[in-house]
């Protein structure tokens, strides 16, 4: 059997319509992204200050990033192992940065206490 006969004997993969996501899903995600963006602007317009301001900005940012990653980057439909491989390293980096910030604050506090006690 020749190569061309073998190629014609196997059916070509057809374009399966079930692989397409409905446009409604994207419209819902865009609507939520718009609502979350309005919320981010409202934090500035209402002039929240301090930890409330930064907590709201970071929470809204993470929600928007989660929507974008899960829907537009198709992580929602990926295997769990791939999702963990992509999502766990940034989370660990954030944990390590927080630990470094805590250690830096502790180191600064001990230096201030030690150097001020001598004068």
What does this structure look like?
This protein is mainly α. The chain has two domains: 78 residues, no CATH class; 31 residues. Helix content is 76%, strand content 0%. The protein has four helices and no strands.
Q: Overall 3D geometry? A: flat
Count of alpha/pi helices? 4
Biggest sheet: strands, sense, closure? none
Radius of gyration: 25 Å
**Strand percent estimate:** under 5%
Helical content class:
over 70%
* Count of spatially separate domains: 2
Low-confidence regions: none
How far is it from the N-terminal to the C-terminal residue, by CA? 95 Å
Mean pLDDT: 84
* Tally of strands: 0
What is the H/E order?
HHHH
Sequence-ordered SSE layout with sheet pairings:
Layout: H1 3-9, H2 23-45, H3 50-72, H4 80-117
Helix pairs in contact: 2-3
Key terms:
single chain; 119 residues; mainly alpha; 2 domains; 76% helix
Give the gist of this structure.
By secondary structure, the chain is an all-alpha fold. It has four helices and no strands.
């Amino acid at each position: 059997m020749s190569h061309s006969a073998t190629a014609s004997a196997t059916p070509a993969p057809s374009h399966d319509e079930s692989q397409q996501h409905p446009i409604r899903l994207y419209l819902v995600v865009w609507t939520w992204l718009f609502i979350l963006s309005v919320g981010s602007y409202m934090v500035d317009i209402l002039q929240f200050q301090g930890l409330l301001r930064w907590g709201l900005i970071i929470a809204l940012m993470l929600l928007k990033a989660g929507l974008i990653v899960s829907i537009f980057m198709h992580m929602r439909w990926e295997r769990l192992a791939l999702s963990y491989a992509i999502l766990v390293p940034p989370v660990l980096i954030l944990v390590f940065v927080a630990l470094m910030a805590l250690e830096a604050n502790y180191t600064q506090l001990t230096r201030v206490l030690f150097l001020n006690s001598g004068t």
